[in-house]
């Protein structure tokens, strides 16, 4: 009887020791759903062969991280950028594959650190109409364009409001065309998305970037507070694998690969893409 009692006690103790591991396994999500800005090449854009999916450097990086963690991820088109953020905020989609850090987003999402890209906001000019430029002061007494409600960081925004003449336009295409017509002196926009659009418009030889950038912002993965998959294990492992990916140089390699991918797609006839 004593031996049987000791045996039962041993089984009970062994079962209790296994509980934390079992709880971790039960809480681990096997599938994540992500979305993002669908008009943001080379970071994200809609797949011409499957418009309900998003492709790009951010998507490739997230797929890499998910594979490292042993979970599946589906990166879907959920509508325009404003709708995508609303879907993640509500928890109907688990995470955003690339967002800048803002106070309003911090209230509804957890940010995975470190940032996987630092996007440079730069001065675009018409090649042949360059002007001496070494910093913000050199934009004084010139006219510029950027997108309506675009922000380049609190410091630059405050400086621009007090010292610069910048008009908000509805699209980057409009801004670039005004620049090439000589109606403005410069355009403020991100380096790589600007390069992707210039390639698609055939303007790459007519536009030039002036350095240094006016500002730089980190791009992060964000997990909805309302996602059923948002737990300490996932946040910790994403941060760990992201740190490893950055150390290997993978994110920058994916940017260059997707810049070429985007450019190749612009050269492919629509009929070929749809087949």
Explain what you see.
- With about 280 residues, this protein is of the alpha/beta class.
- It folds into two domains: about 30-120 and about 220-275, Periplasmic binding protein-like II (D-Maltodextrin-Binding Protein, domain 2), CATH 3.40.190; about 120-215, Periplasmic binding protein-like II (D-Maltodextrin-Binding Protein, domain 2, 3-Layer(aba) Sandwich).
- Helix content is about 45%, strand content about 30%.
- It has helices at about 1-25, 55-70, 80-90, 105, 155-165, 170-180, 190-200, 230-250, 250-265, 270-275; strands at about 30-35, 40, 45, 50-55, 70-75, 95-100, 110-125, 145, 165-170, 185-190, 205-225.
- An eight-stranded mixed sheet has the order 5-1-6-11-7-10-8-9, with helices on both faces.
- A hairpin with a 3-residue loop joins strand 2 and strand 3 (about 45).
- The longest helix has 26 residues, at about 1-25.
- Mean pLDDT is about 90; it is low at about 1-25 and about 270-275.
């Amino acid at each position: 009887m004593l031996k049987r009692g000791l045996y039962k006690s041993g089984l009970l103790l062994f079962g209790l020791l296994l509980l934390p591991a079992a709880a971790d396994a039960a809480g681990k999500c096997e599938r994540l759903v992500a979305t993002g800005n669908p008009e943001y090449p080379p970071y994200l854009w809609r797949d011409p062969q499957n418009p309900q999916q998003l492709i790009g450097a951010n998507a490739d990086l997230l797929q890499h991280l998910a594979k490292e963690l042993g979970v599946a991820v589906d990166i879907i088109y959920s509508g325009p950028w404003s709708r995508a953020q609303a879907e993640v905020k509500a928890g109907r989609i688990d995470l955003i594959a690339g967002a800048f850090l803002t106070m309003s987003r911090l209230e509804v999402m957890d940010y995975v650190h470190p940032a996987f890209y630092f996007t440079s906001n730069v001065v675009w000019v018409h090649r042949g109409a360059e002007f001496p430029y070494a910093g913000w002061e050199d934009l004084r007494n010139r006219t510029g364009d950027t997108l309506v409600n675009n922000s380049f960081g609190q410091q630059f925004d405050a400086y621009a409001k007090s010292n610069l003449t910048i008009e908000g336009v509805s699209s980057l295409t409009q801004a670039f065309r005004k620049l090439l017509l000589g109606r403005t002196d410069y355009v403020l926009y991100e380096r790589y998305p600007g390069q992707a659009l210039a390639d698609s418009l055939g303007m790459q030889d007519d536009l030039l970037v002036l350095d240094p950038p006016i500002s730089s912002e980190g791009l992060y993965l964000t997990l909805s507070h309302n996602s059923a998959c948002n737990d300490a294990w996932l946040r910790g492992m994403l941060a760990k694998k992201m740190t490893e990916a950055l150390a290997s140089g993978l994110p920058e390699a994916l940017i260059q690969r997707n810049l070429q991918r985007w450019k190749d797609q612009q050269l492919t006839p629509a009929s070929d893409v749809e087949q």
